[in-house]
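Example A, followed by Example B.
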Amino acid sequence: MSEAHADTATRLLIGGHWSPSSTGQTFLTRDPSTGRPLREVAEASPDDVDAAVAAARAAMDDPAWTSLPRSQVSLLLWRLADLVEANADEIARLETSDNGQPFEVSRNVTIPGTVGHLRYFAGWATKIEGRTAPMSNPDVFHYTRREPVGVCALILPWNFPLMITAWKLAPALACGNTVILKPAEQTPLTAVRLAGLCEEAGFPPGVVNLVTGGPAVGKRLVGHDGVDKVSFTGSTEVGREILRASAGNLKRVTLELGGKTPMIIARDADIDAAVTGTVQGALFNSGQVCAAYSRFYVDKARSDEFVEKVAAQAAALRIGPLISEEHRSSVDGFVRRGVDEGAQLVTGGKPAAGDGYFYEPTVFAGVRDEMSLARDEIFGPVIPVLTYDDPDELVGRANDSDYGLAASVWTRDLVTAHRLAASVKAGAVFVNMLHVPDPAAPWGGFKASGIGREMGAYALDAYTEIKGVFMNLATEE
């Protein structure tokens, strides 16, 4: 973060004003690549959260926002995208130091993805419309309106902090809501910077608010009666807590949660393409991706070749650090458990030497369905390979999971591709490609992987309420 903007990290944005926590408390973030302290950040108090909710509520009643022409809302989002693009190198460096993403990823994936989501929903701001439908009574004219849900708490993860902020913030604002950003305590810095750019773009005070801090801040938002909607990306365990806590005022909830993405490699697959897809799909962002390819079903006739080539590619790959020492210990615990359960460690399997929270890319063979490597979300650079003899057993095995965020199929046969895409229970299925979401396509999970959809036209359902209007057209005699 540049010196011009560094002081905002110790401040909260509430109602258009940057101010320290009301208690003066801060917390320390660390650079995952070195483990060294990075930045002091404001720790919001319960009073600060209440103030942010009040500011967002006041903005929902302010004509400066509610009466703003939709074309102007579109322009504001477009300006915000332009500002991100104009400051791309600085913001990418900030994301790299805060999250540990390699700069190439921050600059060439995170920044374009952020800009793309902002511009996509800038287009939607002028196209949110209702419908008419014929009523059973011909003297009644009926139409619907899409209206903002209201105050939205956007609770953000640490794995892709900037881009996931954009894919929640953009549709929320396009639909006319006000928001409170609550970034993960591990990675708050790009959310702070983006909130400042929202001001610079010209959003009225109180439309975008920011509170930083630990889990207590998020819990306060989730339980707050002044919050109308919560959008959360993170663990399934926390998602369940949010769902329970939202019952107080029946706030709307969108949850994008954990995953254990199956990747099916058919006998006829281009094995070299599947190997490259495996390594990139499993190890991108050091495996810290909800939809990361994380259990690999390989036809037994191709498994030896597959494992040998995957291990060679993985061992040669340089990846970024994990987010924290705590998370690295968790990943290592899964690896140790896999060895204890009888899986064959082919390569990797331990923390990398040197500073920071790095872990070696790890490949296991001989994994069985009941092992933790095949069932639990590891969220790290681990590739567990399972085999199959009978293609007819694949769907049942792939669906034997609590999760259903994404799936992957590698085959040259269209019948196989379409059959598996229809049968696997997942919110997104990627055929012969990496797990790359798009602003125009729906994103979300089945089962314990979440509730609702983000991105595309489907995000409008998450950030609007439908109102029906009935007009009596009958004339009195």
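Example B, a separate protein, is given below in the same form.
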Amino acid sequence: MGVAGFDEEFDVVVVGSGAAGAAAALGAHQAGASVLVVEKCDEATAGGNTRVSGGGWWVNRDPERAQVFLRSLNGAFPVADDVVEAWAAETAENSRWLEDLGADVAMSADYHTEPEYLELEGSDCYAGMDTIAGRMGHSLLHDFLHGALAERGIEIRFETPAVELITDGGTVVGVEVEAADGRRRIGGRGGVVLATGGFQADPGMVRDYLRVEDHVLWGSPASTGDGHRMAQAAGADLWHMDNMMTITGVRGDDGSGYYLALWNAHNYLWVAADGRRFMDEAADPYHGHVRRNGGYELFPQRPFHLIFDEQMRTAGPLSPTPDVLPVGWNLLVNGARWSLDNADEIAKGWIERADSIAELAEIVGVDPSTLGRTVEQYNEACAAGRDDHFGRAPEKLAPVAQAPFYVLEVTPLLGWSNGGPRRDGRARVLDTRGAAIDGLYAAGEISSTYSWRKDGGFHVGDALAFGRVAGRDAAARA
């Protein structure tokens, strides 16, 4: 045994090896600390959502304006000023920091070239999205960061889940892990950084905090709220636990999700359980939000049905191929592929076919006259070039008129949760009285800065920024 009953001891222990964990470990190492990263997954599946994300981070051209933008995005759900200030300053350093580590940083020419929330005050700070080599996805950022750790001799100990924080008089001094040879106590002289991801793969937490009854996963199935529970056991307060991102999804064979992206044609409408339309189906999805009812709302939060016709079916795949959007656990880790003509999904029974709308209503289990009138009214709007019910843009109105007709159940595809242990601008976890818990830090999706809306490249940018902050601060304590 080592000092204070530890099996081994480091200056900083980082839990999780995604963007936040890697940045924390690299930041602590740059500050002269000895670092260990523990990761519950094996090497082939480690890295959380960073492994399967777009792998891009937003380019912050003006930290002062960035503060304004973040406050605009958070709206009625503010975070503390020191968090806003640290976020604005540190996200502006992300590209330079990665270049100094040896990354080939280049701006994406195809994705997030301008802010999604262009109308919000402060959006002029947004200059685009940087990526590794100008390419999105394909685990490029994950692979670079893990390579940077290896080059510096920073160990990632795979298949070593953290199970409990070790405290001494309220101060976090280490972490207990489940190693191959049993439990081990690892000391962290400067502290422990929790970078364990979200809780979207824990159905109980999803129901309790997000009120989503049925969902499929876009990201890592290892995001089960482990760090949240460890932080709470150490006295942590929580913030914005109900914020998240869902997008339109389809449940696959194994319960994993495909992203339903209706980009190839517009011959479709959405109906709820009563067989009626309920919103502008073509409203732009802004990372979990849509413009609706005069403001922004989380969407989708419950399943519904996609109704479409033969024109839509033959226009191309309903879920993007990796050459178009190389992101998501199902595509990048499971190797799943949606057929180019949607025929495989019809054969599997995911998409059901009918020769008439009335027959389709029987499949869906709704009143045929109701669904018939819904489709009729929608087609009338298409003919008139004006959707008086939900304001769908004229250029995105195309009739559902060519038989056969199809129906597909749409299930919320949960990308990430945003809430977790409350932290300050130094990434220190706060207790329920607002005091810092000495030696405990959080960064990344476990404790995202975003209390409401976010823009493109913001999650990775936040993870890199507060990962560095946490690593540096913990190293200074050591």
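On Example B: Residues 458-477 form the longest helix (20 residues).
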